[in-house]
Hints:
The chain is about 0% helix and about 10% strand. The protein has strands at about 20-25, 65. A two-stranded antiparallel ribbon has the order 1-2. It is globular and about 40 Å long.
Amino acid sequence: xxxxxxxxxxxxxxxxxxxxxxxxxxxxxxxxxxxxxxxxxxxxxxxxxxxxxxxxxxxxxxxxxxxxx
Length: 69
């Protein structure tokens, strides 16, 4: 069985505040200035508010993933 790289981000907002989170772009690098390792695969998340998790990994900072409170 082939090994699979798994990235996870835990982002929290204070419960009951009506706050959410928006992430424009996620990049993971082994070294400063090195290649972005967060490529390929399938992004997953909840409460997408019309902005899917894949937007955080599409190489475009003008798109974003949003998670509503």
